[in-house]
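Contributing: when you submit paired examples, paste them exactly as shown. First protein:
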Amino acid sequence: MKYLIILCLIIIFSSCHSAKYTSNSGSKGILDFTEGKWIINDAVCTNCDKTSLEAKMIDFFKECIKDSLVLLDEERKMSLIKDRIPFEPSKSELKAMAEGTNAAYLITLKGEVIKEEFGGIGYEPDQDNADYENISASSIAFYDLKTQTQIHFVNTRGGLSVSKSIDDEDGAFAIAPSSINILNKATKMNIKILKKNCICK
């Protein structure tokens, strides 16, 4: 029985595929969340759950910025703000937000499921030189409303490829993270990067 369990574990781990992640960030110094009022935009979500993406990011910002953080939905009730603000707003959109609110900064969020070709558990493709890909990306950007410029960004992209081994006649059983799981991990990685490059209240 013991050897059977060990054999099963070997098969499971040998069939697992893991995603690879690449992060990029840029800034003009450390983000200082102790000053000014920060508005967080509605998340832009492509092929993913907007509410879930927002919840993961907003929890961190609420903890860090505290009472200086305002959700765009709340601000919209009191100010003349466009119904929809894109992830990369134009200078005119940033200027209008600066004039319509007393906020100093804007935070924008974006999640993308770029490819979802493998469901998490299944078989590798039978054909040679064929693969299934799961790819997702998570991004956060920060804007100074006074100068209408981007002051910081962080982006993490994760992906994996499931393909048949050259030695196999048929596609083998495989386990791999879904694109949503890749997106969730990319978001957590972005937050981890921000924690190392910011000052919280």
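Second protein:
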Amino acid sequence: MKHICIIGGSGMLAGVTTWYADNDYIVSVVARNEEKMNRMKNACSNPENIRGVYVDYRDSTKLEESLQQNINRYGPFSEAVVWVHSDGLNALTTVFELLGEKTTVWHVIGSKGNAQNLQKQYYPTKDIQYNLIQLGFLRVNNSQRWLTNNEIADGVIYSIRSGDSYNLIGEIS
């Protein structure tokens, strides 16, 4: 089985986590909230494929230690999906360090994220495919609204399947 790391996989990316688990991946999910993790696992057809990693991704040392334990237990990561707030971007560097050559990172960013700057600033030094998925908004009846968690998960899955280096879900100003 392939092994994937998802940061933010028990919240708005829960649908992405269950999609990978239902497609026979071992999914190491970095989360802070065990209740949300359990709710997400209960909605999954293969909850036994989901491994909770309960750590704050902003703590690089604990993040690296926890993810390394799962790598030792379940094998190297073939991919990573990373959703972090701007105060936790150092988690990307930690993930890059733990990944082997020829792996793929899907970095999910918000509507205000500067994709070009992030690609320059966080581009890995290893042979890792670094892809950005930017979240926007939808226009409905002459107004704007944020994407729902289901729309985000569906858009991220679509982006992963497309393999494109940049995808926008919705639109940005």
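If you have annotations for the second protein, write them as plain sentences, like these:
Residues 137 and 143 are 10 Å apart (CA to CA).
The mean pLDDT is 92.
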